[in-house]
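Throughout our pipeline, every protein is held as a single compact record rather than as scattered files. This encoding replaces a full spatial description with a residue-level series of whole-number codes. The remainder of this section carries one protein's record, kept here as part of the documentation.
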Amino acid sequence: MAFLLLTTLMLLIGIVCAFVTNERVHEQTGPSTTAVPEMLVSLRGLVSDVPQELQAVTQQFSLPQKHVLKDLDDIAMSIGNTIYSQLRDTVYEMLASLCSLGQDLQVSVNHLRALNTTLLELQDRQQDLEQAVQVHREQLRDLLQEPGCQGCAETLSRARDLELGADFSQVPHVDNVLHRLKGVPEANFSTMVWEENNTFNALPLLASLQMADVVKELKKAVAQQPEGLKTLAKEFPNWEAASRWSQALEDVENCSYPYLKEVQRYEKYRWIAGCGLCSAVLLVVACNLVGLNLGIWGLFAREDPSHSGSKGRAGARILIVGACLSFLFAAPLILLVFSTFLVGGNVQTLVCRSWESGELHKFADTPGNLPSSLNMSHLLGLQKNISILLAYQQCKEGAALWTVLQMNSSYDLETYLDMSQYTAKLEQEVQNLKVDIEVVDLLSPAGHRDLKALESSGLGDVRCSSFLIQIQKPVVNTNMEKLAQELEGLAQRQGSSVLGKQLQEEAHKLRNLHQEKVLPQQSLVAQLNVSVRALASLAPELQLETPGVLDKVAHLKRELPAWASRILRKESECFLTREMGYFSQYVAWVREEVTQHIATCQPLSGALDNGRVILCDMMADPWNAFWFCLAWCAFFLVPSIIFAIKTSRYFYPIWKRLSSSSSEETQLFHIPRVTSLKL
């Protein structure tokens, strides 16, 4: 009984584990079959996404194009502003010199004309004044020399000095200078400088207008795509192989659905068969446990006279039934164990262990183990053979297909990233950028004629010192007002009324002469003094400055276009350097994307790992656990039959003894039968 109980408990443990593993296999089959198409989709996406990713990379060329086109919108104005800012100080200084020179020229010419007019009027008035002074001097001398004139000696000496002081007939004429400066200034220098200043300030806008056509052609050139980038994706190695692989994976995916459905259907049958056999074994266990319980109950109740022995008999019969069931289901159970062991054991030993240890990859890498049609390098059209194990390890580390498949030996990426022709065309178009600043004339033709006339006029040769010598002299050497006062005093002191009256009349005439002739002459001398001193301060420097200004203007007009061209060339080079930097950065990014990021084969290694998990962890492991539990049950099923039969025999004597005891008890009250007596 103990051995049967122990065997039954072992069967119970095995059958519980068998139920659990059977259910586990059934539960894992559904997700596993669902994961297979998902894995194929991910692999197909890995293959099919390569051309799309390459196309996306080439389309990103629009980013540097947008930057360049945006810069081209401002290049003309930028170059114009740069030319303006670098030439501004020089041009402003030149225009300021011209404006100052023009103003000085205007002032000098005005003073020269005023000097000439004043001088002519002084000379005319000087003749009239000289005659009048001479008449008055003669009359005074005659009066003061009369014998009856008392105290007239001192006044007589002053009267004799009554003559002109300044003689403006001795100063040089300026007619020749005025003749050379006739019509000067012809130009309005203030207006001219203002107009030239506005023209120069409009230089950025002018440059923008002049370069508009070239910028338009540049935009057309930039909008094009380099030929290498156009064919980058199409000429990429394995483009056709990728299409074939993608189509093949899609076909496998489509074909896998019916088989996976069949797998699920057969799995359902297997699960039902497993549940049936497990239930049969469970029934055997139940028979053993029930038989043992009834048999043991019968043993304990054998001393009870009223006990009929049915429990022991039932226990023995149930054990026999359990043994029969065990014998009946042993063969199917052993066949199921064998079939599941054959599949699960081989998968675990030949596939899972070698897959996990890497032996499977080494087997695939060994030449001759696989047919040539399954050679990876041949399928991908590679020139070099690749190691599947090494490729798997690199993919697991996140390497790209470029590195894994060693595409640098079969595909020259730099040829397709060569943008020399594209950039050469841009450079050629940039060289056509021109700025014409000859519109900035600085000095108009009229202004140039004015300065040339000033240069040759001899204005600086006017002898202002001669004018100043005469200007510093009085108009009349004797103070006529004071002389008139002395004459009035003498007239009062004279004893002769006639002489006194004559002196009074002469004093009155002198005052009239002073008011009418001398004072206007002095006013003209003052005007002449202003003009002469202005010319003395302006003319020499003006005469010396004019040739230098003309030379600077001529030099600047010659050099401005050259300076502007140098600035334009420098700015164009800076523009090209900046824009080429955008394209170089894009090329470096494409190179990095293609060689390091595009088509990373980590999903491939992940798919292989997922396949191993699906096959080994999700299916093979529960499958092997299931057959191991069934084998456990089959192993303990044979001793269960033996122990059940022996235990049932042990329960049968109890029933027989109970039966014989009952017979003996009934025979105590048996009336013996009458037999014949011998005589």
